[in-house]
Amino acid sequence: MFTYSPGVMLTWQIGASETAHARYQYIEREQIFIGLLKAKDLLKPEILDMFEIDYSDVGYLEAEFEPIEELLAKFKVERAEVRRSLRDNVGKGNYQHKEKVVHRSKECKTIFEQAKELAKKGGSSILNANYLLKAILENPGSHIKKVLENFGIQIEEFKQVAWELKDIELEAVGVGAKKGKKDENKYQKTYFLDKFGTDLTRLAREGKIEPLIGRKGELLQIIRTLCRKTKNNPVLIGEPGVGKTAIVKGLALRIASGNINPSLQGRRIIEINMGSLVAGTKYRGQFEERVTGIIKEAKAHKEIVLFIDEIHTLGGAEKAEGSLDAGDIMKPALSEGEISCIGATTLSEYRKYIEKDPALERRFQPIIVREPGKQEAFEMLKGLKERYEKHHKVTIEDSALKEAVELSSRYLPDRYLPDKAIDLLDEACSRIKVNSVSFYEDLNNLESRIGTVTAEIIARILSDWTGIPLRQLTHEEQEKIANLGNLIKKRVIGQDEAVDKVVQVIKMERAGLKDPRRPAGVLLFLGTTGVGKTELARSLAETLFGSEKNIIKLDMSEYMEAHSVSRLIGSPPGYVGYEEEGQLTGKLRTNPYSIVLLDEIEKAHPKIFDLFLQVFDEGRLTDSKGRTVNAKNAIFIMTSNIGSDIAERKFVGFGNKEEGGGNQAKEAVSQLKNYFRPEFLNRVDEIIYFRELQMEDLSKIAKNMLNILNNRLQNQNISLNIEQQVINFICKQSYDPKNGARPLARTIERLITKPISERIIKGDFASGDKIGLGLRDGKIYFYK
Q1: Beta-carbon count within 10 A of 185 CB
Q2: What is the DSSP secondary structure assignment for residue 749, as one 8-state letter?
Q3: Domain chopping of the chain, boundaries
Q4: pLDDT for 328-353, tens place per residue?
Q5: Residue 443 buriedness (CB in 10 A; 0-12 / 13-18 / 19+)
Q6: Which residues pair with 367 in a beta bridge?
Q7: Phi-psi region of 512 (alpha: psi -120 to 50; beta: other; left: phi over 0)
Q8: CA end-to-end span of the chain, whole Å?
Q9: What is d(CA 63, CA 169) in angstroms, rounded to the nearest whole number?
Q10: Per-residue pLDDT tens over the stretch 39-82
Q11: What gap in Å lies between CA 111 and CA 486, rounded to an integer?
Q12: Which of 227, 243, 420, 749 gets the most CB atoms within 10 Å of its CB?
């Protein structure tokens, strides 16, 4: 007994539709021929539903119409053009169909019988589209023959090529399948897997997958897990960018090359796109139907291994009341070993979604993928070097590869190797390629131009990404650090001993001799207000990190309550502000290379000190969302007014500036024990006492302040000349050992800045003027 294939049934219905539309009474060979040419354009679920054909048969339909597609391709004609020409040649009739059924003519029935005979001779019990086409070509009729000749095709030649095409045996694609078929999946198509998946094994054969460098241990674990009898579904767990997907693609490469365990030879790895699965599912049941279709096809093809990246989405995809998620649908097939599946996710997502579902978790075998070391990451980049050179048409120096690994490891702590190093290298190649293009240049000559990616280019890219000055990333940094003390002393006046101690800590860290687990520096500044503690922190930020904006300043008087810890690391779940970043952790995450200034540290609650114990000892901090924040590259500076009363008691006038300085520092440090526990003080790299400012220090500070004012006036083309006696007068008016240089700023503003502002507004001073300041009878006067 013969069976009509899905393709023949679809062709027949298309022929009936064509007949009714052309207003003919019976279906003729011409309408069936049009149906054969049109069917492949209608392989869409909504259209197949209209013809009452199960669209899970789309894979069979595509396989069935392949020979017709191949036949027309040999003669370089389009199916649509032949269809339109045949319709025009046949013309329109005038028959009115009163019934919904359209019957075949005697000639058309004869062609179907002839097609059955051809199928019988071919040893098939199924009448497919290929046999129907051959039967039509045996007796094409005048219309078909004329249309083909109009396209320059001789019917005998067309028939001969059609007979040479290999028949599609639908027993091999699941329609009336024969048992024991040696190559039963050779021609089979998979509609859902083709639409929602990517065949990684095929991409590997086509050379579209980058080679896997290293990761032999993890790859071997996957192979062993896939070869197991039970729980043979590996799930790769690791941080973003460590290479989980690359390992699976490496497995696809091994399978494609045949260099694999015999039990895995011939396997196909299909990556499923969960986003595509959910997209467009407007009605209940559409998503479940897609997932069920994928499972059905995977069951029918034992050679297929599904790969689901971000597999934690199985636990929530399209979850609605009364419906199943993808994980629920897949559990039975996974538990019974009917399908094989590889997953990949991060550790946090695995714990959040997979571990919470024990039934889903026990069906997978976890494989931990750790971040590679610097040497391994370097070898990975060397393995990819040739491909990037070929793609970007550049030359990459080995020093650039090493620099990409070193700089990304140090300055991109929130990302992981090898991804961040590869991104850095790819961006550098792209920049070299784009910068070599001139809009006025002959574009035909660009192919011959080859740029070179150097370590300096890598450093420049990272500087753009992070805002860290370029010189800090290169050898210029060593020269700058060597001269760091002199640079800071130009700005911080009268605190040479304090500056020297700070510079020693920085040099030790930059030389690589400091404990790498701790922050770059932990400093405690003591002294009265206005002596330069905050100014030194600002100077460090500008000198080391390029800008004063690289200061994270926290006024610790705002953290006097126990619950204020949450302001630093973020509110716990369920509390107001949980979605907001912590004031410390949030800024450190986005700006890890910075000065963290903890002003008036002694005013903070003791619980705040407990928090910083971990930071100062291990160089890391965990926020309220469980994310680890790297603090190893920050310099923590705490300021305190502890000991300021000592200076006030011992102040004796304008004496020697070194008088009593050492004793004051010792007494101030001893007072710290009344405020801080020993374990807190032991984590401080250097406790630095800032002595009180002397008159000569104020004179230098005044000159610096007035130079800043002069620079502002020069922006308006006005110059300022101040006599030395005016500076001495201002210093005497401002000197106050209790408040340091703060009164000096107010005095300059009151006696100089405000009067100049008023005269500029009145028009007394204008662009091009040269303003002089003198002293007469104890008063400052202005002159031009």
Answers
A1: 17
A2: I
A3: 3-173, 191-368, 374-466, 477-689, 695-783
A4: 778 777 877 788 889 899 888 888 88
A5: exposed
A6: 236
A7: left
A8: 117
A9: 9
A10: 888 877 667 767 777 655 666 777 778 888 888 888 888 888 88
A11: 100
A12: 243
